[in-house]
């Protein structure tokens, strides 16, 4: 246990997908009812978090897109303002994140979830990048103008498929993301759309919060063919702490998923595509939380579970942050 704690403390632990409450987010400097705040991060050795400007899918008209764009940019500005520049630093690049960790400060990062916020504005990725965002999740639940969702929403009038994967606008949007230096997140995207995005993007794509469909048949998980595509393009699948993605149970029963189930999914993905293409995230405050990692204060519990499986310090570093940083550097180099 002492050795596990030391390895965890020496590892740059980045949670690549953390939702925030909006509107009226609580003060993260204080202990809150949220699963992630700065005191919990400090207790759990969670060094960095990518906080999410999340947009629920809504009406795809001019007013709906304008409201989504306004909300996304307001959230990005709020996330950036969480950092004070000393004890908590806002980081937009891989180098800034590594320097923050070396200085012993907590790192705040940001991303946008749901390309609905773009509308048809291909200039949006450059504005988001200027505000510090590091990736865009192309869809959420429900199709948007960029791509089909893995979970269509009947109340929005969604058919099983609308675009056959990516729309022409979606392909152009990926080009805009590449030019701006944002990573393309294929979480929530239909299988066909995800595989098309991997082919179209000039930089490796990432599924920031997913799991392995071979172990849990859920539409938000990715199957072995999709894992193989991620390996082929140098991409990344990040196993997340959403119980329904890890273990399927009869409706109405409590899902007992734990850090051991997360480790099972990591084992499967690593066995299939290699340690260099697998990562970790929580989706805290967006549905994530399992036994052994219920909030940021318990982050060491996941590290301990992985170390018990035989992963060492190098592998733990790749899973927590090394692989994501590699992709972030690729996006930064390809920008412009």
TrEMBL record:
Pfam families named in the record: Peptidase_M19
Gene Ontology biological-process annotations: proteolysis
Organism expressing this protein natively: Roseicella aquatilis
Name recorded for this polypeptide: Membrane dipeptidase
Lineage: Bacteria, Pseudomonadati, Pseudomonadota, Alphaproteobacteria, Acetobacterales
Molecular function (Gene Ontology), one example: metallodipeptidase activity
């Amino acid at each position: 246990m002492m050795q596990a704690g030391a390895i965890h403390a020496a590892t740059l632990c980045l949670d690549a997908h953390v939702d925030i409450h909006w509107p009226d987010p609580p003060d993260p400097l204080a202990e809150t009812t949220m699963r992630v705040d700065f005191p919990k991060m400090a207790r759990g050795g969670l060094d960095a978090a990518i906080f999410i400007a999340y947009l629920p899918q809504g009406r795809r008209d001019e007013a709906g897109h304008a409201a989504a764009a306004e909300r996304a940019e307001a959230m990005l500005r709020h996330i950036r303002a969480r950092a004070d520049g000393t004890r908590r630093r806002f980081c937009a690049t891989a180098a800034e994140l590594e320097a923050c960790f070396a200085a012993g400060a907590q790192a705040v990062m940001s991303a946008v979830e749901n390309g609905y916020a773009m509308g048809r504005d291909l200039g949006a990725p450059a504005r988001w990048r200027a505000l510090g965002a590091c990736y865009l999740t192309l869809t959420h639940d429900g199709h948007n103008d960029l791509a089909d969702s893995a979970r269509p929403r009947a109340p929005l009038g969604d058919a099983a498929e609308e675009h056959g994967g990516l729309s022409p606008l979606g392909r152009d949007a990926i080009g805009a993301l590449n030019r701006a230096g944002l990573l393309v997140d294929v979480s929530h995207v239909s299988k066909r759309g995800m595989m098309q995005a991997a082919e179209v993007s000039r930089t490796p794509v990432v599924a920031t919060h997913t799991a392995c469909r071979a172990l849990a048949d859920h539409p938000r998980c990715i199957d072995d063919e999709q894992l193989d595509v991620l390996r082929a393009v140098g991409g990344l699948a990040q196993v997340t702490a959403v119980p329904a993605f890890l273990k399927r149970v009869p409706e109405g029963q409590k899902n007992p998923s734990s850090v051991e189930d997360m480790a099972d999914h990591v084992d499967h993905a690593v066995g299939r595509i290699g340690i260099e293409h697998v990562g970790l995230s929580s989706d805290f405050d967006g549905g994530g939380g399992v036994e052994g990692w219920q909030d940021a204060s318990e982050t060491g519990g996941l590290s301990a579970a992985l170390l018990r499986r035989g992963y060492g310090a190098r592998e733990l570093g790749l899973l927590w942050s090394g692989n994501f940083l590699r992709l972030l550097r690729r996006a930064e180099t390809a920008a412009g």
